[in-house]
Amino acid sequence: MRELYHATWLSNMASIEEKGLLPGMDGSVYLAGPQPGHAAQFLMFHTQFAVDGEGRLVMREIEIDGEKHSFPTPVENTHIYVYTVDVKRLDPDLLSPSSDHAPGFWQTDTESYWYDGVIPPEHVSLTYQFDLDNLHSNEVAV
To answer: Does this model's pTM top 0.90?
Structure first.
C-alpha cells in the first residue's frame, strides 16, 4: 500500500508529537491518500472552535436584530499540517476503507481510510505544510 496521510491544525500538533494519532469520538483515526493534499482537503470544511482550559467551547455573544445569540468562537487557522503515516507499521486488521464522504464531492482519486486504534508518534512524521493564504482557486495542492 502507498503512504497514507493525516492532516491537522497547529493546535493538535503537540499532542500528536507526544501521544501519536488518537482515535476520535467514533473510535477511529482518519487517513487519506494517495497524496498529502488528499488528507488536507478534508480539513478545509472542518471549522475548529476555541476551547477553554477545561475543554469547554468558548462562546461569544452576537447581537442580531436586537437579540443576543451565543456562538462558538472559531479558531483562525493559517496552515494545514500533514503527517505521513508509516503504513507498514500499522496493524492491517485495524485499517479499513472508509465510506464517510461523498466521493463525487472530493478530488476523484481520493482514497480514505479508518484506523481503529492509536497510531504511536514513532509511526508518523510531519512532512507537509499548506499555507492557506497562498492557495489559489486554480491551484491543486497535491
So the answer is: no
**Distance in angstroms (rounded) separating the CA atoms of residues 33 and 118:** 19
d(CA 124, CA 115): 13
Burial 43-75 (b: 16+ CB within 10 A, else e): beeeebeeeeeeeeeeeeeeeeeeeeeeeeeee
Please give the C-alpha separations between residue 80 and each of 13, 59, 72, 86, in angstroms, as whole numbers: 11, 24, 21, 20
Long-range contacts, 103-107 (Cβ 8 Å, 24+): 106/38, 106/41, 106/42, 107/37, 107/38, 107/41, 107/140, 107/142
Grid coordinates representing 54 are 477545561
pLDDT per residue as tens digits for the range 25-59: 889 999 999 999 889 888 877 777 888 888 888 99
